[in-house]
Every structure is written in structure tokens, then in C-alpha cells.
């Protein structure tokens, strides 16, 4: 049995292999001391092993000891203890990073609560609610001068769309009535804002409505490339026979209506039958329709 010492395990194994003239797989090896780099040069330790050949001690060795040449082996020896030590160090490093991140979050000022878009969406859907006089929007008082509001909204819209690739010639901003702001987009590319068949119209309406209603307490009537006008024309044509039926029977339930159509139909029927109960309802599939009934049905 002989003892060998070197800076690394690879080197000390090479010493033992050269000494006995055989492969390390033919040696019985005991690790006396694991190598350690220490910290800033302090506590540095070499690797120390004891080794004996596995063959019979009486057998003569034919090979001469090789010169001590330390070469990088294809197979690297990684001790389990070293893996565990490295793993523990990595876990400690990650835990320290997490503590630092948590401390930074505590030091940062808290952001303001994000407005509840869903609640705004419900307000928009209930603009023509069962009782418009009880709507929360009716309680909001516009404190700014009308011309100031028009100027601010116009400037805001131009800032929002001036850098887009759409060819929008003009954005009209004016009051539709005392509580409603009318915005109209015109130009060759204005229809591209809402896409084919206007599938982005509702999204654009919500974006502008949440801004205008939050800041000025106003409702919104949005026209893009005559989309709203065409929708009104189509729903008015549908409602002509419906109105006659209501006059005869006193009640009616429209077909399921999508998007802005349900609001247009609701306003039209309320204008036609102010004495009746007219409200938006939802069926079990989630489709919306307008119900017209005797006003006493509201109390049931």
C-alpha cells in the first residue's frame, strides 16, 4: 500500500497508475483527503489517497513506471460529495437572490389599483338598462366646459392614432346630446380599424368608452366608416314588423342580437313603447335579446 498526494483527484490517480504501471481500475483506492480550493488561498487542501494493486503481490510487474505526465482524461471523475457540496452552494445562492428580490419589492412604492375593466364593460352594456335614471353614470357631473372636453378628446385621439399606418383623414368629435360624445373616424383606411364585418368595433368602443366615461362621465357614440349607420339601418328593417306585432299582441321577444345591435334595438323599442317594460335579457346559451312586455311585469 502506498500513499499519493496531488492537487486534484485526477492527478493523484495518475500518480498511482504510473507507480503501479496499471490502469486505475486495477487498483484498490481509498480516499484519505478530498481536495479543497479554500477561500482566497486559505484552507487549501491537496487530494490524498492510498492505493494497492488488485493483482497478487508476488507477481512481478513487467512494465516500467511511466513518467509523471498529467493529461486531461476523456472520463472525468466527479465525487458524490463534491456534487452535494456544489448543489448546496447553488441552493444557498438562489435563496440569497430571492431574499434580495423580496427586499427590493418591499422598498418599491405600491402601484395604484388597476381600474376594473369588467365593471366598466357592464356599465357600457347597461347604458340602456332597465331604468336609465338609476344608472350610476347619470350621477356623474361633467365639471369641465364642453369645448374644453372636445379639445382634450380631439388631442388625445390624434396622439393615439397619428403614428399608426392607417390613412385616417379626420376624426370628428362633437356632442351627440348632453350626456353623449359622438366620435367618427373617416378616411380610406378607417374601416381597417374595426376589421372585416366590424369584429373589432366592440373592442375599440370599450377602449374609448372607458377613457371618456372615467374622465368626463360621458357616454359614447362611435362611428367608424359608417359601420354604426349600417347596423342601425339593418336593425330598423328587422324591427318594423316587430313593432307591429307588439302593437297587436302587447309583448314580444326579439331574436338573439350581437354586439351593438342589441343596444340599437333596445333604444328603438323604448322610444316606440315608453309605457312598456323593455329590457335586455340573456338566455341559457348566453345570447342577448330584447324583451317587450307590459310594464307591470317588471314588478313580478
UniProtKB/TrEMBL annotation:
Signal peptide: none annotated. Residues 104-115 have a biased composition (Basic and acidic residues). Gene3D superfamilies: 3.30.1370.180, 3.30.300.20, probable RNA-binding protein from clostridium symbiosum atcc 14940 (3.30.30.80). One of its GO terms (molecular function) is RNA binding. Residues 3-54 form the RNA-binding protein KhpB N-terminal domain. SMART domains: Jag_N. Residues 86-115 are annotated as: Disordered. This is Protein jag. It comes from Arcobacter arenosus.
